[in-house]
Amino acid sequence: METSVADAGAPVLIVGGGPVGLTARALLARWGVPALLVEKHRELSPFPRSRLVNVRSMEICRGLGLADRITARAFAPEWGRVRFRDTLHGPDFATAAMVGVHAPVPESPVTGVVTSQDRLEPTLLGAARAPVRFGTELVGLTEEPDAVVARLADHGSGAETRVRARYVLAADGANSTVRQLLGIGTTGPGALGGFTTVVFDADLGRWCARQPAGVYFTAHGSFAPLYPEGGWAWFGPTPENAADAEDTDWSGIVARALGPGAGVRADVLRVQHWVMNAFVADRLRHGRVLLAGDAAHAVPIIGGLGMNAGLADVHNLCWKLAGALHGWADPGLLETYEPERRPVAHATLRQAVANTRLMGRVLARRRDQLRTGEAAPASVEAPWSERYFAQLGLVLGVTYRSAAVLTDASPGPEPGTGTDYVPTADPGRRVPHLWLGPGRSTLDTCGEWFTLLTPDPDRWARHADTPWPLRVEALSGEHADACGLGPHGALLVRPDGHIGARWPDRPADGTTLRRALGAITGPAPAAP
User: Fold this and answer.
1) Of 304, 330, 389, 423, which sees the most CB atoms within 10 A?
2) What per-residue confidence (pLDDT) applies to 244?
3) Backbone torsion region of residue 370, taken as left when φ is above 0, otherwise alpha when ψ lies between -120 and 50, otherwise beta
4) How far apart are CA 174 and CA 298, in angstroms?
């Protein structure tokens, strides 16, 4: 292999060109942080893979100006549902809506969508102009006191180059090369089994058009519509000996899963074998290298939590990288990434495992019914009582606890609270969604800056001339009451939309705001 000894430079090297890496690239571009993204495959993935963009991820995409574009290419809200059937062309024996996707929820300005990853990724790729090198694989890492040197192999030319970056953001998947090179272990069940996705064309509309769903679970595998205009995927455990057999009749396997008498031939387009993993990395940071997405936590697909957790990872991380690189935050701010996101990763894994068990219970009950000869169509009382996918507490109710959150007297709930979500303005929580005006939410006040929300903007603005990026936004008295604020109180909201500090009433003195920002970001930067 030809080796180039000349080093290229980039403040941030992103490894992995899936949704998490691409979102990080877009976020850093908004902050004005140059980044280089490398992806070992020669193009974006042609497989549907992740299927759900949940409500919190859509809030992140709204901040990037992408929500409308993603929604326009996604399924209509009525497809935000799961259905259980004996075969695809049979009647439902159980069903449940995806909360925050099937219909709007009052706790958010956006609605999540059902869409395929191969449709989402081009939108994310087009959100920034930062360079991307496809067909380039990271093969080595060397950590230095003030940088990381990455060795990159170009699969096309065979050349090897080096890139010196201030930080490396590893979003290179469950089999992360970066994680393995750093010797970071994992905790959890690990590999749960081999699965296969078959992408195919077939006319299945007569069984689904009047009862749409994002996923149809059957005893013979699951079916997912790929795009509003057509296309399907079947996925399930890989049949014995099928993964290595070039002559496997995948069309026949899909036809059998459709059920006897379906009379449909599946035109197979692509086949992908993969492993369902379940683990959390033992560390999310190693010096100047930070893990995100599946590199940090791989969760079972049931519930659509994995990719969305990864987007939340980089939303938490990128403003901290920007602060360290632009100089308004101490590099020690990055130490708050792991204590904030790793507990969420564990909660996400627990929820995904619970979702998988719920699905198994439904299918087991149906098998019992069929064995006892109950008359069809029989129904199964779903064990979740319409709570499957009802996980807003985990999606919107995450509570961060770290040095980047100044807690007050209320300790608040633990990070990631499961299915129930009650909006609060406690420090560490996502700021509650409140409409400030037509089409403008409190969440829309967040961006590449800290936001001070207060019913007394004039008083606080007198102390807002700080070295940190900061904007002051007015709250009505009604909204202030909802946030637990008096007439002179304020919320200091971090760039990721989580509350960094709260003052129920007037500040103690004119240095209150500066001291809070300094405590969150590290030693105060010098005044301009």
Assistant:
1) 389
2) 65
3) alpha
4) 6
Here the tokens at position 503 are 């003052």
pLDDT of residue 260: 79
Whether the CB-CB separation of 366 and 93 falls below 8 Å is answered with: yes
Mean pLDDT of 433-455: 97
In 3D space, the residue among 465, 329, 332, 404 whose CA is nearest the CA of residue 33 turns out to be: 329
Nearest to 500 by CA among 443, 434, 425: 425
C-alpha 283/C-alpha 426 separation (Å) is: 27
Bridge partner list, 162: 7, 151
Q: Is 154 helix (H, G, I), strand (E, B) or coil?
A: strand
Rg (CA), the chain: 24
Q: How far apart are the first and last CA of the chain?
A: 49
Has residue 380 got a pLDDT over 90?
no
Q: Reply yes or no on whether the pLDDT at 164 is more than 90.
A: yes
For 458, which DSSP code?
Answer: H
Q: Which two tokens stand for residue 148?
A: 């990381």
- Dist CA 492 CA 513 (whole Å): 8
Q: Output the pTM of the full model.
A: 0.94
365 with 380: CB under 8 angstroms? yes
Dist. CA 278–CA 189, nearest whole Å: 6
- Would you call 51 helix, strand, or coil by DSSP? coil
Indicate the residue type of 296. A
Angle between helices 117-125 and 19-30 (to 10 degrees): 20
Find tokens 């198994």 and name the residue.
360
Beta strands, E only, 48-135: 52-53, 81-85, 92-97, 113-114, 132-134
Mean pLDDT to the nearest integer, 452-461: 95
What does DSSP assign to residue 284?
S
Task: State which H helix or E strand residue 72 sits in.
Answer: helix 67-72
Identity of the residue numbered 291: L
Taking the C-alpha atoms of 481, 487, 491 and 492 in order, what is their torsion angle to the nearest 10 degrees?
A: 170
Helices (H), 115-218: 117-125, 177-181, 205-208
pLDDT interval class at 5 (50, 70, 90): very low
